[in-house]
Structures are given as structure tokens and as C-alpha cells.
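Subject: mismatched residue count in predicted assembly?

I count 599 residues in my input, but I want to confirm that the predicted structure covers every chain. Input:
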Amino acid sequence: MSTLAVGSTAPVDAPSSDRVVQAVGLTKRFPERRGLKATLLKPFGQSTTTVVSDVSFSANAGEFLGLLGPNGAGKTTLLKMLSTLIIPDEGSATVEGFDVVRDAAAVREVVAPCLAMERSLYHRLTARQNLDVYADLQGLTRAERRTRVDDALRAVSLQDTGEKLVGQFSSGMLQRLLIARALLTKPRLLLLDEPTRSLDPISAREFRSFLREELARQRGCAVILATHNAEEAFELCDRVAVLNKGQLLASGIASRLSREFLGVRYRLSTTEPYHPAISELSAHGVSVVSTTPRNDQPGDWHDVIIRMQQDDDPSAILATLSAKGVRIAAFEPVRPSLADLIEGVVKRGTNA
Amino acid sequence: MSLVMQVFGLIITVIPLYFVATALDPSMAQAIEGEADQFFSFVLVGSVGFMLATAALTTLQGAVSGGIANGYFESLMMTRASLPSILLGLTSYGMVLAVVRATVFLTSGWVLGANLAWSRILPALVVMVLIVVAHLGIGLVAAALVVAFRTSAGITTLATTISVFFGGVYYPVSEIPSWLAMIAKATPISYGLISLRRVLLHGQSLADVGPELSILAAMGVFSLAVGSIAMDLALRYARKAGSLGTY
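Triage response: the counts match. Full output below for your records.
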């Protein structure tokens, strides 16, 4: 198994017994598309690309598991395997105890996928009519339908535009409607593929709050989300799994992974970014990550991002710099970007 | 508006059909003796049956193809709805439209003087349903090929061509050379049209056309069974290949 291939701070398996998802050794290979000539010359010589390789993980009720990784890492394929849209070649996955291959119909009863499918909405119908159609397909009764559609529209702040034609929606509104559609069934597992990519910051924050408070805490729904958003990875997700080229490289709490793979980062605001005392810190294992001028303040202020080891004492470093006469206006921890985290994990995974 | 134009177009189409068929009536009278009294009625009913058969052959394939291209086929497959109800839903609009078109066509022909036994419309509807069912299976196979390989491999074109040439749409099956008669016997629409004409033009009962209807029904059961298996295999293949939502 490729779990924790390069080490991590938390197990890939969810700790408690209230398990909603259990995936073991999931592997998926896709045949490579070939032209007519290649097919005729080698009819049985088709090669395959492994898009998910031996991935294992689990998620508990009320838990958020984030899938991180560059494009083509296998995140969407994993979500589709859990949605029963793709059959794994090897390994198995269960949702609420139902196997995604053998009990696909039962899995669809408890899973609500929200993948990137804006085109799958009926643009000549209103938002409410779209949800009505899907409520019917999901087998909701007429009485349930009204309440659930209202709730779903409210959850994504579309209650005032429910009667508007979907063809007139912005991409953010389409995204919200897709999320509303996924929420109709009160799922046990919600699968989200970059759920807030088209949402404005306020809507995204409200949506995250809804996911956390309503869906996870109150309803105990497990949420697996593929994301490129740092706020989601660091603040929403209980654990994240970093994938690259189909392999699970590391998993755990995002902030801990960040510390493990990138060290602890502090921002130093100073007018003397190239003061010898700062470069002398390297003798203590502290390195300068970046130096950027601050245009928002008068004078020659710079932000210097330094990286220190997990057990370094920041106050001692601050005291050292002050003692050596470095003018410091601010010294505070900074969260690395998601790109840094993914890059850090992938680099170490490649070197391992 | 599009529907209105389609209906208007159909009404216009019946007029030249009426003139051509009336002109050919004397020379066709003997050939169509067992099925109709006038050639215009013969062609009218043939066209209606062919219209329904074509809709049954092509509607599902078109809907599935469009659904895959637009992404909603994949989203439908994620719902709790059963496969038969999804497929039925995808075909319903096209089939309702075909029924409306057939009704308009038939009524326009009646207005122009076709001798229709309106009292036999209910048994005629039963025959029409059987014609549709017999062709739905082939349509299901075509849709399955689209799901698996993004092409129906010309199955629907082949089926409609065979139907129009050997199914007795514009001339009776008895006029087909004997060495090609086997093809006519394997064509569901030929049994459907013989039954439909005898019911709707000669006023016969369903019992009178029992042998033809039995063959039509058996063909329907067989083609639906083959179509269901093909669709099941195609969906499994697409889920394996991960191509359910990619065109």
C-alpha cells in the first residue's frame, strides 16, 4: 500500500469506529486512447495509465477528509469510484458497509456526489424545477420534496432565486445549485469536487460554515472533498490526504503535515531584510524562504519569511535578532500556501 | 414554436402524398387488396407505423448521446432511480412527440379522404404500442453502443433502411421478390403494418391479426431482452473505462 509513503503525522485511517467510508488498496487504470493505425498494428497491445494506485483511507461520520494534489493526481477518479461511476480494477471500498461494486444501488442511497457538472443542470428550467426533477429521481415523496428543496436552496443562499431560469445563472450560482442538488437526499457521505471554486468569498465562507455546523456536526455526514483551497484544507478538513500521480503520499492534519514537510514559518517585518544577523540564523538551522518588499507601508519595509525547525523557540530567535539591532515591526507565524504543502510532499515523495 | 412548425410541416407533407398515392391507386389496387382499399390509406398507415418505429429506434440513442455530451447522463446514473426508469424518462419526450406527429399525420390523411375505421382506434393503438416495443429493443442496443463506444455503428440507419425497403411501408411485402422475402420476414415492422392496416383500414379485431401480433410481440420480447443485456454490459464497460461522462 502506498499510504504514508514518505511519513506523516497521523494515520490514514480514521481513528474512531463510526466509520462511513473504508477504502483498501483502490487501484484504477485507464486504457490509453489510440488511433486507428496503432489499433490495427497492435490490436491487443493496448497500454494503460494508472490513475489511482493502491490507495487506502477511511472517513468517519461527521469528519472532513480533504484530497489534495496537483491536476491528474487521481482525486476525481477516487471520488467517482466512491460514487459508483467508475469500477476499481483492484482493491475495494465500502460506504456505510456497502461495497461500491457489488452493492452499487445501496451505495447510491447514501452517497451524494457533487462533481463538476454544471452542464448537467437543465438550463431551461428554474433552479427549483431542477431540484424537483432530481428530488423525483431520488425517490423523495411530494411532501418531502417541498421541504428538502427549500432547505437545499436556503443552504446555498439561493432561496431568493429559486424561480429564476438556470440559464441566467452565473457560474457561482450554478455551482451552488449543484451543491443544493447533492444535499437533497440527506446523505451519509458527501463527495465534493472543488466545491467553492466558483463561489465568492462570502458565499464560500457561509457554505463552509454550513458544511461544518449543519452537515457534519448535526447530521453526522462524512465529507470527502477534493480541493485546491488552503482555507478548506487547513480550517475545514480534519485530515487531508496528498496524492500525486495516483499515489497517496501522505495524510494527516494539514497543519501538522505542513510543519512536518515545510517546517515552521514566521514572517518578519523589517527595514533591514539583508541584515547579517538574519543570514547568520542559518547556523541555527533557520533558513530564509522569501524576501518581499511591502508596498503598503512607507519606508523600506520588507517581509522576510523564515523557516525554522519544529522544536526551535521563536522567542529566542526574535530576541537574538533584536539584540543584534535588527529593526522588527512584526514577527508572527504564517501558514504556508497549499501549493507549498503539496509541492513539499510531492518533492519528498519523489526523492524518497 | 418548433413543435407548431413540425406539425405544420407534417400537414403539408400529407398533401403531395395524397396526390401521388391517388395517381398510383389504379395500378396498386390489386397488390394491396388484402390490406387496404385505397393506396393513399395504405401509404398513410405505413408512414405512421414507420414514424413510430423510427422514433423507437432513434430516440433513446439520441437522448443518451446528448446526455453524455451535456454531462447529465452521468449525473442521472448517480441517482437512486432505476435504470429502466432513467431510460424511460430519456425516451418519453421523443416518443410523445412521435405519437403527436403520428396523430397529426393520420388525422390530416383522414381529412383528405383516407378510409380509416375510427371505431378500431383502440386495437390499433395496441398494435402501435407493439410496433414501438419491437423497435425499442434495437434502439436500446444502439444506445448501448453509444454508451460503450460513442457510436451506434449505423445500427439505427441499417434498421430504418431495412424497414423502409422490406417492411411494407410504401408497397406491400408481397411485391418483394421471393429471394428477398426472408428479410421481410425478419423485419418487425412488416408484421406490425400488416396488422395495423387490417385493423385500422379493414376494421378487423386483434384476434383476427393474432398470428402477426404474436410474432411481433415475440420479436419485441427478444429485442428488449437483447437490448437490456447490451445496455447492462455497456454501462459496466463504461464504468470500467471511466467513460460514462466523457464524450
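Chain B touches chain A at residues 70-72, 74-81, 86, 89, 236, 239-242, 244-245 (CB under 8 Å). Marking this ticket as 'not a bug'.
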